[in-house]
Amino acid sequence: MGRLIVAALALLVPALAAAQPRAGDYPNKPVRVLVALAAGGNADINARLISTALSQRLGQQFVVENRPSGGGIVAFGELARSAPDGYTLLVGALGSHALNVGLYRRLAVHPLTGVDHVTISSHSAIAVAAHPSLNVTTLAEFRDLLLRNPGRYNYGSSGNGTTGHIAGAMLVSLLGVQATHVPYRGSAAAFSDLAGGRTAFQADTISFLSEPIRAGTVRGIVIATPQRSPMAPDLPTSTEAGLPAYQATTWTPWSATLGTPAPIRQFLYEQIAEVLRQPDVRDRLIQLGNTIPEGMTPDATRAFIASEIERWVPIVHATGASVD
Q: Does residue 109 lie within any of the structural domains?
């Protein structure tokens, strides 16, 4: 009898092991990396740097595809329709993964319950830059100008419901001024009109705005963090500028189709974490004004996104911004 039990167990253990989901030979074909924003922005830079490194590391192509429409709604929908096998990923931002919860009355794919998560690859502070023709150098001067000219000035963003939209609306609300939001298809398109003087100011990541600020194409007004950024050391923080409530940092989440096996998501997290330790990737992201978080496991990522939704939805409602 004892020998029969041992023999039965010997047969059962491999069967149980085979039934457990594993990363196995993943990836054994190209992986699609959908980016919820247009090319040229911080999420796109993260996606391309990391995807290139993953392709080299794992021997399969991680192919970046931009899906910027609807502030991430289109990309989320495409992800939800994909097989839950780890071969379609989504890279987003604060807007796509948190702000949309406050902007839309109903989301077809909710960022907490409609997708699974892998990790967060970077954080990037939000800064505000103005066209030099405004002739303002401080936040106080900027506020006074807008107060004297209610509704005259406008600000661009990478699209309705994006981080730049809400960061701009938040600033306008906190300052008690009036300005008109103009949505574009991506940060680069919005910045083109800012540089040309067709819009007055823009809120965007310091990683995106630092170079034109240094070049003098636009004038930095404030950075929405407690500490100054090495990317723009002369740019005062919101606290230094007298508006401590203006705190805004975006982040770059990597998500997978709901139901993607945990071992695959854990494998992806570990591989991205290794890539982020590579000097060429890490140094480039830091050079662009990003900070690299540690320990952003799939579970930690989900908890972080939940906390950001809880923080930002009331802010979105307070600004009065909406999409539908």
A: yes
- Give the span between the Cα atoms of 49 and 91, in whole angstroms: 12
CA 305 to chain centre: 11
- pLDDT tens digits, one per residue of 279-293: 999 999 998 889 999
Instruction: Give helix 42-58 / helix 206-215 axis angle, nearest 10°.
Output: 120
Claim to verify: residue 255 and residue 315 sit in the same structural domain:
yes
251: exposed, middle or buried (Cβ count in 10 Å: 0-12, 13-18, 19+)? buried
Range of the domain at 182: 125-223
CA gap 291, 124 in Å, rounded: 6
Contact between 100 and 69 (Cβ < 8 Å): no
Band (69; pLDDT cuts 50, 70, 90)? confident
Chain-centroid distance of CA 56 in Å reads 24
- Does a structural domain hold residue 229? no
